[in-house]
Design goal:
The chain is α+β, with helices and mostly antiparallel strands. It is built from eight helices and four strands, in the order E-H-H-H-H-H-H-H-E-E-H-E. It has two domains: 197 residues, Alpha-lytic protease prodomain-like (Up-down Bundle); 78 residues, Cation efflux protein, cytoplasmic domain (Alpha-Beta Plaits, 2-Layer Sandwich). It has a four-stranded mixed sheet with strand order 1-4-3-2, covered by helices on one side. Helix 2 packs antiparallel against helix 5, helix 3 runs antiparallel to helix 6 and helix 5 runs antiparallel to helix 6.
Length: 301
C-alpha cells in the first residue's frame, strides 16, 4: 500500500575544518621520511642484533602506512557523492583506520613473542649501532611530529598522526637507553624489555581504538549520545505527538547523521526540530519525516 507521508528534505549545515593541501603535502613527506627511517632501522637492527630496534622499525612502518592511508583518505574524501556512493567517500578514512589497526595488532603480537624470547635467552648486540640509528630516528620522529602538528588541533586524523609520531619519538628514546645499557653496563636484557614495552604499546593502541572504528562501521549510536534522551527532546517540541524510526549514526569520525519519523500535523515543525537537535546534540545532518496521526501506524519500523 502506498504511504502518504509528507517529507522535508535533508537539512545540511557544514562547519567542519578542511585539512589544507599544504598539510596533506606535509603528511606525504612524513610518509616518505618514515619509510626511509624504517629501512635504516631494520638494517641497523639486523646488523646489531637488536630486536627493540626492529620493533621500533615495525611501529614506525605501521605509522608510516597510517600516514599514507590518511593522505589517500583525505584525497578520496574530497570526492563528491555520486549515484552509487550517495554518502560520499569520507568513510574511506575509517576503513583505512580499521586495516591499520589490524596490521598494528599483528605487528605488536610478533614483537611481543620476539621480546619474550630475548628475555629468556639474551643475545649479544652492538650498542653503538643501536644508539646512532636511534638518535637519527629520534630526530626524524620529532621533525615528522612537527610536520603533522599543523591542523592537529581541529582534525582527528591529523591529531592521531601527530600523536603516533610523538610516540615513535618516545620509542626511539627507549631504544637509545637500551643501547647505552649495552655500551656502559654490558647489559643485554634491556633490549628485550624495550621491545616488550613497544609491543604492549602497539597492542594497547590497537585494542583501544578498535571499538570506536567498529562502531562507526556498524552504524552504532556515537559515543556520548543517548538515543532515549534525543527522543525525549524531540517529543518535547510543541506540536510533536510521537517519534519513532529514530536512527543516529556516524558517516565518519566527525559527521553524525540522524533520521526519524515524527507524528505531527504541522510539516513546518521539521525546521524547528532540526535546529533543536543541532543546538542540544551538535548533530548537523538531519532527515526528519513528518507523518500525521492517521497513517503513522503504517510505518515499517
Amino acid at each position: 500500500m502506498l504511504k502518504t507521508h509528507e517529507h522535508e528534505g535533508l537539512l545540511h549545515h557544514h562547519h567542519h575544518h578542511e585539512v589544507s593541501e599544504k598539510s596533506v603535502k606535509y603528511l606525504f613527506i612524513s610518509f616518505i621520511i618514515n619509510m626511509l627511517l624504517s629501512v635504516v632501522e631494520v638494517v641497523g637492527g639486523i646488523i646489531s642484533g637488536s630486536v627493540s630496534l626492529i620493533g621500533d622499525a615495525l611501529h614506525n612502518t605501521s605509522d608510516a602506512f597510517s600516514i599514507l592511508i590518511a593522505v589517500i583518505a583525505f584525497k578520496i574524501g574530497r570526492k563528491k557523492a555520486d549515484n552509487k556512493y550517495t554518502y560520499g567517500f569520507r568513510r574511506a578514512e575509517v576503513i583505512g583506520g580499521f586495516v591499520n589497526l589490524i596490521l598494528l595488532f599483528i605487528a605488536g603480537c610478533y614483537l611481543l613473542v620476539e621480546g619474550v624470547g630475548r628475555l629468556i635467552t639474551p643475545e649479544v648486540i652492538d650498542g653503538a649501532i643501536i644508539v646512532w640509528v636511534s638518535v637519527a630516528a629520534l630526530i626524524i620522529d620529532a621533525l615528522t611530529a612537527k610536520l603533522s602538528h599543523h591542523d592537529a588541533g581541529h582534525n582527528t586524523n591529523m591529531r592521531m598522526v601527530f600523536l603516533h609520531n610523538l610516540a615513535d619519538a618516545l620509542g626511539s628514546l627507549g631504544v637509545i637507553i637500551s643501547g647505552l645499557c649495552v655500551i656502559y653496563f654490558n647489559v643485554f636484557w634491556v633490549d628485550g624489555v624495550v621491545a616488550l614495552l613497544i609491543a604492549v604499546y602497539m597492542i594497547y593502541q590497537s585494542v583501544l581504538s578498535f571499538p570506536k572504528i567498529v562502531n562507526i562501521l556498524m552504524n552504532a549510536v556515537p559515543e556520548g549520545l543517548d538515543l532515549e534522551e534525543i527522543k525525549a527532546v524531540i517529543k518535547n517540541v510543541d506540536g510533536v505527538k510521537d517519534v519513532h524510526h529514530l536512527h543516529v549514526w556516524c558517516i565518519n569520525e566527525e559527521d553524525v547523521s540522524l533520521e526519524c519519523h515524527v507524528v505531527a500535523e504541522d510539516i513546518n515543525l521539521v525546521h524547528h526540530i532540526a535546529e533543536t537537535i543541532e543546538e542540544k546534540f551538535a548533530i548537523e545532518h538531519c532527515n526528519i519525516q513528518i507523518e500525521n496521526q492517521k497513517n503513522c501506524h503504517k510505518c515499517n519500523l
